Amino acid sequence: MVKLSPFEIVKAARSTEKITTSDLIRNLVPDFFELHGDRGRLDDAAVIGGIGTLNGRPITIVGTQKGEDLAENINRHFGSAEPEGYRKILRLMKQAEKFHRPILALINTPGAYPDMNAEYHGQGSAIANCLLEEMQLQVPYLSIVIGEGGSGGALALACGNQVWMTEQSTYSVLSPEGYASIMWKDSSRVEEAAKALHLTPTELLNEQIIDRVIPEVRNAEDIHDLRKIIFAEFQKLEQLSATELVEQRYRRFRKY
Amino acid sequence: MPKKYSRPTATQIAERIKHIPDGIWRACPVCDAKFYFRRASSFNVCPECGYGFRLGAHDRAKMICDQFEEINGDLRTTQTYGQERYSQKIKQAEKNTHLGESVLTGIGKISQTKFALGIMDAHFIMGSLGSVTGEKITRLFEYATEHNLPVILFTASGGARMQEGIHSLMQMAKCSNAVKQHSNAGLLYITVLTDPTTGGVTASFAMQGDIILAEPHALIGFAGRRVIEQTIMQQPPADFQQAETLLQNGFVDAIVQRKDLKQTLHHLLKMHWEV
């Protein structure tokens, strides 16, 4: 395989050719049943969540969803969740905990949605609650970045016992455009910023920010392989007691 | 007979201006009031609207505590990610603030009531959340959990420490973990949001307090105003992301004038704490 530059990986991560979260979920767990709403205000379309069986084992899946065309992207805010989206995520995760279901979180988001209403409705508070509660979930929790992993909006889904990334995905504190504009007051220096941010899976694996790099999902065979490794990981994590799971997560994030 | 008034020449005016010390008149960045500097009082607030000017962490500690003893004061950022400019920035910030990082942590006492205290300082690289900032806050919570102490944290931050990239983001998760363990032990956590509290700090420990207080007119938010203007093309109103707006929307328990903070905190601590 040709080695891609950091900026090429950024472009690949954002590519519309990439499998969407909802396609990935429906292929991974064909019996997926979607659950909507934050039980407070509304249903944020940037977030999909629900239950389905993986090799016969019921699991909870949550993820950020970009649209496939402009109309859908406007509705889903290009995968940028509002506070209600983060509250939906947390609601479904707590539900998973109640029914002892493992949690799979799929991340493809440029970041939390930066608009006025999101601020009025407590974007900061909603993400803060995700971080606070997810750390203590007493069930296996696996996070996978499958496209863009942008900032706090991604971290709200990336508090897993394991955090993985697909080969052509990124995970960073902010976008290369944002970095270039803040650090150098020049948003055109994106390529340089992509390099400086160390946002590629290989670099993040070396820096122990993530635990594993997995292949891109392009066809049915890839789905089959992905299902196998996710199932194996859940089986491994289910060997641990609830206390051990929380303890493992504590240690995983304490080291930073 | 007194000398008749004559208009001073431009040179004379320039000469006179040279002898006027700086900082006699101050302007409030919130209500735009102009006032004689002494009217800000020892609390350093706007006499018109109550806005609290940004304080140094050591000054804040003196204002809040009868006694304060710093812990983990020797922790410093050593990993500068190969950026010469970053290490210079840290050195400059250390010199300006007399702090080792953007947060001062320690054990404070008001009268006989003891508590763990963290104070972020916006003068240290905009109070940004570096790895050592996160480490000091985490250790403060761990210390408090171990010694059965409540935590009071004054937040002031521009958000993530860009120079540290993803390591800065990880601090949000690390600190949240420590907050939760402290909370599970049944202990009290009070945050005081001061100007400005934004970005990753807002999206983690600032908003995780059992009780969340704020100073008048403090800027509190997640996304920056410019980001909202440029990406979503909205024009937020003047009171957008002000403490008062957050109070109205239900994200802050109370706004407390700076002069009343010490007494308020003492009162709240005592209601959770049998001495």
Give a verbal description of the structure:
The complex is a heterodimer of chains A (about 260) and B (about 280). Chain A is of the alpha/beta class and about 260 residues long. Chain A has one domain (about 5-255): 2-enoyl-CoA Hydratase, Chain A, domain 1. Chain A contains twelve helices and eight strands. In chain A, strands 1, 2, 3, 4, 5, 6, 7 and 8 form an eight-stranded mixed β-sheet that branches. In chain A, helix 7 (about 150-155) links the parallel strand 5 (about 140-150) and strand 6. In chain A, helix 4 (about 85-100) runs parallel beside helix 6 (about 125-135) and helix 8 (about 175-185) packs across helix 9. With about 280 residues, chain B is an alpha/beta fold. Chain B has two domains: about 20-55, no CATH class; about 55-270, 2-enoyl-CoA Hydratase, Chain A, domain 1 (Alpha-Beta Complex). In chain B, about 35% of the residues lie in helices and about 15% in strands. Chain B contains nine helices and nine strands. The radius of gyration of chain B is 21 Å and the shape is globular. The model of chain B has no long low-confidence stretch (mean pLDDT about 95). Chains A and B meet through helix 5, helix 6, helix 7, helix 8 and helix 12 of A and helix 4, helix 5, helix 6 and helix 7 of B. Chain A: Pathway: Lipid metabolism; malonyl-CoA biosynthesis; malonyl-CoA from acetyl-CoA: step 1/1. Chain A: This is acetyl-CoA carboxytransferase. Chain A: It comes from Pediococcus argentinicus. Chain A: Keywords: ATP-binding, Fatty acid biosynthesis, Fatty acid metabolism, Lipid biosynthesis, Lipid metabolism, Nucleotide-binding, Transferase. Chain A: It catalyses: N(6)-carboxybiotinyl-L-lysyl-[protein] + acetyl-CoA = N(6)-biotinyl-L-lysyl-[protein] + malonyl-CoA.
